């Protein structure tokens, strides 16, 4: 197949940063072929209020008004049920939970989700989405480390789903067969994003290669195969969230004995062609429209109208084009 089209591609997990970095990277959403960006709230300071989220949205729209930005709040002890109601009324779509945020102010780490139950109750009532970074913090006393942090999180997903069966939950950037199975076992209110890089990489690719290092880390070949399988079967609750996360080159490449490299893989500028290339490599190119647009939009109640459906991005295969290894700085 030399040409394939996707209706209004949507990236349901992306980091657009702030300030100069945002000005540089936000236009790459459109450049990468995407019309919608689900924007993560982990800025400095994190986006914890409706007012901050709306101001951030304005900043992004000033940089590139052609993309639809869906905004999120950062789950923290300051977030109240009243703020949830306010956020929903202002058009904010979701709340993101990070493991570190969860362990703050709690001895038992992730178990402290219960302290957020009033917030989740409000989210369920007003129909906001809970986005989970599904890893528990590393802990040598329980043999918890970066390779099993995701499977060990899954009981929390199940208990949250059981406690709030109508709350829409997205397990973000799944990397394991266990996570795929866990999401499948849940009801229609639980979905899962998959990144492009986790469809490509395994442990061997990031051990010793800092540019392939991200959290959650890419796992074993069989885990990667599970991600590919669920796309091949066109499961409607599994869709693209790139987790594209830019860092300055020096923070990726110059680790020292006392300073590790930054976690994050940056795919935005080439995202749609990259995803098409990967899907083609494992026999799922015909599932591209579902994976990169329709399924996520359906879960987030962002179905396209007839006019938007016509707004297609066409990918054309051309031979012998090599992506530049280094992007020159514009003066
Ligand atoms: Zn992320």
UniProtKB/TrEMBL annotation:
Keyword field contains Hydrolase: yes
GO cellular component labels: cytoplasm
Name of a matching Pfam family: Amidohydro_1
Domain Amidohydrolase-related residue range list: 11-252
Entry EC number(s): 3.5.2.3
Leading EC class: hydrolase
InterPro entries found in the cross-reference section: Amidohydro-rel, DHOdimr, Dihydroorotase_CS, Metal_Hydrolase
Pathways involved: Pyrimidine metabolism; UMP biosynthesis via de novo pathway; (S)-dihydroorotate from bicarbonate: step 3/3
Family: Belongs to the metallo-dependent hydrolases superfamily. DHOase family. Class II DHOase subfamily.
Entry protein name: dihydroorotase
Organism: Mycena rosella (Pink bonnet)
């Amino acid at each position: 197949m030399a040409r394939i089209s996707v209706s209004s591609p949507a990236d349901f997990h992306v980091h657009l940063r702030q300030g100069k970095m945002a000005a540089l990277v936000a236009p790459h959403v459109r450049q990468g072929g995407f019309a919608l960006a689900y924007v993560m709230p982990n800025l400095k300071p994190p986006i914890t209020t409706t007012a901050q989220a709306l101001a951030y949205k304005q900043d992004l729209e000033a940089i590139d008004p052609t993309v639809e930005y869906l905004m999120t709040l950062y789950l923290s002890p300051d977030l109240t049920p009243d703020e949830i109601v306010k956020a929903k009324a202002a058009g904010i779509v979701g709340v993101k939970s990070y493991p570190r945020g969860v362990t703050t102010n709690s001895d038992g780490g992730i178990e402290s989700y219960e302290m957020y139950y009033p917030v989740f109750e409000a989210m369920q009532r007003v129909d906001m989405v809970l986005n989970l970074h599904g890893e528990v913090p590393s802990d040598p006393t329980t043999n918890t480390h970066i390779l099993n942090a995701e499977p060990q999180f899954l009981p929390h997903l199940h208990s949250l789903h059981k406690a709030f069966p109508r709350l829409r939950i997205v397990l973000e950037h799944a990397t394991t067969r266990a996570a795929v199975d866990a999401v499948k076992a849940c009801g229609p209110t639980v979905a899962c994003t998959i990144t492009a890089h986790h469809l490509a990489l395994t442990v061997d690719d990031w051990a010793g290669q800092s540019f392939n290092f991200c959290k959650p880390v890419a796992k074993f070949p069989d885990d990667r195969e599970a991600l590919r399988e669920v796309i091949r079967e066109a499961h409607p609750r599994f869709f693209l969230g790139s987790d594209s996360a830019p860092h300055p080159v020096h923070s990726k490449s110059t680790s020292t004995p006392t300073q590790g490299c930054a976690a994050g893989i940056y795919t935005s500028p080439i995202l749609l062609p990259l995803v098409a290339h990967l899907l083609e490599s494992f026999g799922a190119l015909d599932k591209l429209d579902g994976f990169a647009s329709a399924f996520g939009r359906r879960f987030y109640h962002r179905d396209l109208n007839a006019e938007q459906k016509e707004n297609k991005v066409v990918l054309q295969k051309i031979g012998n084009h090599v992506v530049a290894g280094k992007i020159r700085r514009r003066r």
